[in-house]
Input
Amino acid sequence: MPTPQRRGELESEIMANMSYCRFQNTAIALKDCECVLEEMTDGDPEKLSDDELSAAKQLVASCVNIVQLLAERGELEFEPDMDLAPVLEQLNDAAG
Output
């Protein structure tokens, strides 16, 4: 599955999340993912499976899309065509 690069291009299964705690639950899970990515850049990480690497690429693309959306709304400059998938692949290839 190609990694989406712009808002609205992500085609994925929508998981049920109660609207009153959607951001709270996601923030907790996202923090865990952030810690894994930090470990991949600074520590001794475990290699991600192909499925996890694909999901990590989708997650990073979604994060970039969120930042782009907010930057556009705030009339801030943002480079919308950033492709971070190769960075994730390099980090994963270097993992043990």
